[in-house]
């Protein structure tokens, strides 16, 4: 194990604190919401509760399981998002979407500030973006983004 000098102790504590927050956030971000489960009638999908009672009527061509309160749905070849109540929070405008909502490390290069935001990758006209469940961009014009992962002993973001 590397011995830390006094000058590096604050940096080391920041890395450890970040790693703990990162771990807790990743566990939460990857958890799926099982209050509603995908339900199919014919060739259309909706959601039912665990007892099989339909809560969101089957009207979508495809759906993804809920996670972090949102589900992606596809209709007529385009993807959008609904919340747990069935409200369409983002119209079906994306060509494709990522598998699930996850934590992203967002760094503002101008203000030199870091935040963790929950979002999903979406694709439209060949361009990748990162949005929240309402379809709002996670990034400002000065931001860079990384998926949250522990990639080595230095607890770097990938």
Give the gist of this structure:
The protein is mainly beta. 13% of the residues lie in helices and 44% in strands.
Keywords:
single chain, 158 residues, four-stranded antiparallel beta sheet, 1 helix
The SSE string, one letter per element, is: HEEEEEEEEEEEE
Mean pLDDT: 78
Q: β content, as a range?
A: 35-45%
Structural class of the helices, strands and pairings? mainly beta
Query: What general form does the structure show?
Result: elongated
| Cα Rg | 19 Å
* Total beta-strand segments: 12
Q: Please mark out the parts with pLDDT under 50 across 5 or more consecutive residues, or reply none.
A: 1-6, 22-33, 149-158
Question: Main β-sheet, in a few words?
Answer: 5 strands, antiparallel
N-to-C terminal Cα separation, in Å? 23 Å
Number of helices: 1
Helix content: 10-25%
Describe the 3D structure.
The protein has 158 residues and is mainly beta. Helix content is 13%, strand content 44%. It has one helix at residues 9-29, and strands at residues 37-41, 44-48, 54-60, 62-63, 70-75, 78-83, 88-94, 96-97, 102-108, 113-124, 127-131, 143-147. Strands 8, 9, 10, 11 and 12 form a five-stranded antiparallel sheet that branches. Strands 4-5-6-7 form a four-stranded antiparallel sheet, with no helix packed on it. The chain has a three-stranded antiparallel sheet with strand order 1-2-3, with no helix packed on it. A hairpin with a 6-residue loop joins strand 4 and strand 5 (70-75). Residues 1-6, 22-33 and 149-158 have low confidence and may be disordered.
